[in-house]
């Protein structure tokens, strides 16, 4: 089971919240309610098994290559869901559907079962070998003797009252389990085809996954998929550089890069295509990020104590032998500079000793870099600020080394803060 948590899901903004959309919305081109729900579950539960990741990724990339369109009428599926899932959709008791609803539901379901059988026998899925087992299993269900009367009927054919009643009992009661298995496979197809279409439209790349323990994370041209004009970056992590210490000014783009990079790592573990030119990664046991850590007011915890608890959680999981991708943005920002410096150095050095995991740590405390250079598996990168006269300009392009930018006071002067405090703002 892949280890992640609500903090990481919120940090990466995977789901929409009030004024902003989420990464989920970018991938959600589904045609069914069941597909939407399944996609959400996949976002909450990435995979930690190489075979499962490769299977999903290969299936989706096949649909992308074939440019497969969702082969079923969404309106038809909507009618089927209202009929067969009436308890969940309408919060009603079983058996209270009226004659009109039963007629519409049975007619739609018969038409859908014919359509899915045709697709499984001769549609583009035949050219997707990674789904061959599931395709044959679903066909077996459809060809079961109990469902034979369905395929003696012509889709769209008007049924007598007696036939409607018999089919209703058969589909909604006697063989409901078989119908649900077929529906669930349609939802899986909906998700895979949806994500394949997104990959084609946005030119996302399918990552290459390696077995656990190889400790490789090579990302080229990664960018944040929500940005209109993103700046792409490269970063290569491995056993010899299992920790990256990132520095840069406040507006230099650190948080955007951290989100871009860690989102790509997270989504790659779902077996989905990512916003990059290339991504190679060793399968990890989990991803834990700390970008926007709230104060835990419920237990009276300060921001610093919340950070300490977060580091403790990571340490506990590492001690349990898990291989993790860990990200901390501005480690120990909630305390004084001296403690933050000492804490950053101590914790980052300790992370460097866990060479089966990968760590991305950003900090304003550039002085910590000198002490961290003692560890040969810590790499140093920064996002530069260039001065055009007294105006800072940001390239958003990752460079090796530690920043020596000291432009805070220039920005304070540019904004006229000290003059305003001394003389008051001119009208």
TrEMBL record:
UniProt keyword terms in alphabetical order: ATP-binding, DNA-binding, Nucleotide-binding
Matching InterPro entries: DNA_mismatch_repair_MutS_C, DNA_mismatch_repair_MutS_sf, MutS, P-loop_NTPase
Superkingdom, natural source: Bacteria
Entry GO MF terms: ATP binding; ATP-dependent DNA damage sensor activity; mismatched DNA binding
GO biological process: mismatch repair
Domain DNA mismatch repair proteins mutS family residues, every copy: 241-422
Name of the protein in question: MutS-like protein
